[in-house]
Amino acid sequence: MSPFTVHTLETAPEASAPLLQQTLNAWGFIPKLHGTLAESPIALGAYNALFTAITTKGTLDAKEQQVAFQAVNVLHGCEYCTAGHTFLSRAAKVPESVIAALRDGEPIKDNARYEALRQFTEAVVRQRGRAGDDAVARFISAGFTRAQVLEVVTIVACKTISNYTNHLTHTPHEAFMADPMLKWVARPEMAAV
């Protein structure tokens, strides 16, 4: 099968070009994921809408958003998004120990709130939304809200679009993903979710 095109403003389907322009305006460049999603204006529009809503209107702070994003990326075994969200986590000033724990699929030992968020996000993904009342109660007792339960679901939906797209299309990595600190390799037991 021929590889998917990583579209530019010039090659994108007509309905995707304005969405890529919005991405360029927001990010200063067009990530290869967005260029790949541009093949389908519906997919690109859905991803952009979810990501923008999460990062501009969500009640989880920027660090918490990255914890949840990364928990999904690692469980789905998505190298592109794990590398990308390592970069975004550093930009949000997530501690390196938290970044490493998330990338390694390990508990976050030095921040109980982040660990509760990681556990709940992973439970939602692993159980395909059927994490159960006890998981919701533990999440809320850790200081989160019912609205944030649903924000986690939105993050899972957003990352499912990007992770699955990257798996199916083999999205090329960005230059900034050549970070020598990134030694993460998808483990079969994590990608099986």
TrEMBL record:
It comes from the Bacteria. Pfam families: CMD (PF02627). Residues 45-122 form the Carboxymuconolactone decarboxylase-like domain. InterPro entries: AhpD-like, CMD-like. PANTHER family: CMD DOMAIN-CONTAINING PROTEIN (PTHR35446:SF3), SI:CH211-175M2.5 (PTHR35446). This is AhpD family alkylhydroperoxidase. It comes from Roseateles asaccharophilus. The lineage of its organism: Bacteria, Pseudomonadati, Pseudomonadota, Betaproteobacteria, Burkholderiales.
